[in-house]
Design a protein that fits this description.
Radius of gyration: 18 Å
Structural class: alpha+beta
Number of helices: 4
Distance between the termini: 51 Å
Oligomer: single chain
Order of helices and strands: HHHEEHEEEE
Helix content: 25-40%
Number of strands: 6
CATH architecture: Roll
Strand order of the largest sheet: 2-1-6-5-4-3
Length: 142
Amino acid sequence: MLKQIACVMFLAAAAQAAAPPAEAEVRQADARWAAAVRGRDVAGLERIFDDGLIYAHSTGIVETKKEYIDRLRGGKQRYDVVRIERSQVALHGETAVTLSWVRMSGKSNERLFDDHLMMMHVWVKRGGAWKLAAHQTTKLAD
């Protein structure tokens, strides 16, 4: 019986060890996204964003990849803080969904903001790289 329990524990540990690489890749992709938007790294965002990106802000404004990058490039959108407080990842083959609680502050269209948000990202794996296909934020009460 002890051998069976040890075998089950070993198999469970092996299964858990097999899952994290993809999850870790997605978490790293989210971290790269946060650093790129905070640093207004247009070249980085060009690589991170899928061409069909749907970028929905907590204000209800929805932008394409080009529209969003142009606003960052032109200084109409600026992030001083993008801090992912906690997140969870759901993997679905070559697609992943992250649900995160984040703090973002900066300036949008000359208006300062400091928001606590719930953020959902949809990532798709293309050519071996995770690409952000959709972004949605919802304001949370502090």
